[in-house]
Design brief:
Structural class: alpha+beta
Strand content: 35-45%
Order of helices and strands: EEHHHEEEEEHHEEEE
Radius of gyration: 17 Å
Distance between the termini: 30 Å
Number of domains: 2
Largest sheet: 5 strands, antiparallel
Low-confidence stretches: none
Number of helices: 5
CATH architecture of the largest domain: Alpha-Beta Complex
Shape: globular
Length: 210
């Protein structure tokens, strides 16, 4: 079993993280797939993408205790077929994460921290946001901002959002884990969200329940 975290976050939200250590046959053997799901799985040419897809289904089944079916809308936002839970999914390299809630909207992002994020920071950091000047913390600080904005994008249903113009993260000092505040300002109005983040070696995960 490769679940490395299952955590109840309160108010009906639950977080799960899976480390992919299994091979294809092991993950596939754990699932009972419908014919359309098999077609989707076999349509992926990339082997890593197949493992990601299988790990998501394996983790959701473990978290719900049922054979859950995931579907997507036209914006690639995931839903459970029976609409029993709100769901948000993220994966990066060897990790998969899922956030669930029965009554609250959810958003999650998980990223492996590469060194190239500084090159694109002007695409998502705006003039009201404060980024550390410490070379040792710069990459990590930028990734918290990026993941937080991805989580906000997802909780807002991936609509009417420009990362730089519509999303602002309030100033904070990066720690190994913590809570930050983010604001969404778009055609639907202004909303404030509380986001939680955690560092896991070279990975960062940020989530929010609204």
């Amino acid at each position: 079993m490769s679940v490395i975290l299952k955590k109840d976050l309160g108010e009906g939200c639950r977080l799960g993280i899976w480390e992919i250590t299994e091979d294809y046959d092991d993950l596939r053997s754990r699932l009972s797939l419908e014919s359309e799901e098999v077609k989707t799985l076999e349509g992926f040419r990339n082997h890593s993408r197949k493992l990601e897809w299988l790990s998501v289904r394996t983790l959701i089944n473990d978290m719900t205790g049922t054979n859950s079916r995931i579907i997507y809308n036209e914006d690639r936002k995931p839903f459970l077929l029976d609409n029993s839970l709100h769901i948000s999914i993220s994966h990066s390299r060897n990790f998969t994460s899922i956030l669930l809630s029965r009554f609250r909207r959810v958003g999650i992002d998980l990223e492996y921290m590469s060194h190239r994020i500084s090159k694109i920071s002007d695409r998502f950091i705006n003039e009201n946001e404060k980024i550390t000047s410490s070379p040792d913390l710069l990459r990590y600080h930028l990734y918290i901002h990026w993941c937080a904005k991805e989580a906000l994008y997802k909780v807002c249903d991936k609509k009417n959002i420009n990362f730089r113009k519509n999303l602002t993260i309030e100033p904070f000092t990066p720690e190994n884990e913590g809570t930050i505040k983010g604001t969404v300002d778009n055609i639907l109005g202004v909303s404030t969200y509380e986001l939680n983040y955690r560092r896991m070696d070279d990975y960062i995960i940020v989530w929010t329940c609204k």
